[in-house]
Write a structure and sequence with these properties.
mainly beta, Elongation Factor Tu (Ef-tu), domain 3, YaeB-like fold, 6-stranded antiparallel beta barrel, 11% helix
């Protein structure tokens, strides 16, 4: 297995990354190819597709051993499910699969050719093994059952982002950050309304508290190096 590319975005740690692809559409990422895969011929025809599959490595979750059951965070971290019934990063092989929207192919300038995509759920620097076109007439199954994941995915928080903090976030990233916070970045088993959470985003430290279904941003500061 050869690493063909890496993703570049605003998420420098696992905390805060969207839990699945397609949940946060307002943020874009770049897919930068590594030689010898930085080749325009390899992308010929890709512009005809609106979405692509990314096959990638859970590079921060590599383990020597595996477990047949895991504790999905969205079930509170206390219920064990079979690893093959989840999208947990702790798998026999640390391989991830995501669908993202292909926004643009850039053929000129530094690092070209590269892809600009939206809706990614990968951490900055994540290695990518392969890219394939998404085929809606084959890959889409609206009648499919979503199991225990559907009720958890419908959960949203109301975000209160005071203007004094929001204006410190670059304007083109504000909506994306709010979408991230709406998804509730906390582990599902943590419900302490007094606890201050924080994660790095775009060179900033975003701090917030959650009481019930209300998330309130209580600070935006330069991220520590």
């Amino acid at each position: 297995m050869q690493i063909i590319a890496q993703i570049q975005n605003q998420f420098s740690t696992k905390f805060g990354i969207p839990r699945q692809s397609g949940l946060v559409t307002a943020l874009q990422s770049r897919i930068l190819f590594t030689p010898p895969y930085r080749n325009a011929d390899a992308l010929r025809g890709l512009e005809e597709f609106s979405h692509i599959w990314l096959i990638w490595q859970f590079s921060e979750a590599i383990r020597k051993n595996w477990s047949p059951t895991v504790r999905p965070p969205r079930l509170g971290g206390n219920v064990r499910m079979g690893v093959f019934a989840t999208r947990s990063p702790f798998r026999p092989n640390p391989i991830g699969l995501s669908v993202v929207k292909l926004e643009k192919i850039v053929y000129h300038g530094t690092d070209a050719p590269y892809l600009i995509v939206s809706g990614a759920d990968l951490m900055d620097g994540t290695p990518i093994y392969d890219i394939k076109p998404y085929l809606p007439h084959i890959d889409s199954h609206p009648e499919a059952a979503g199991g225990f994941a559907v009720p958890a995915a419908e959960h949203r928080l109301t975000v209160q982002f005071p203007e004094q903090w929001l204006r410190l976030v670059p304007a083109d990233l504000q909506q994306g950050l709010i979408q991230v916070l709406e998804q509730d970045p906390r582990p599902a088993y943590q419900h302490d309304p007094e606890r201050v959470y924080g994660f790095p985003f775009a060179g900033l430290e975003i701090r917030f508290v959650v009481a019930g279904d209300i998330l309130t941003v209580c600070g935006v500061f330069p991220a520590e190096p």
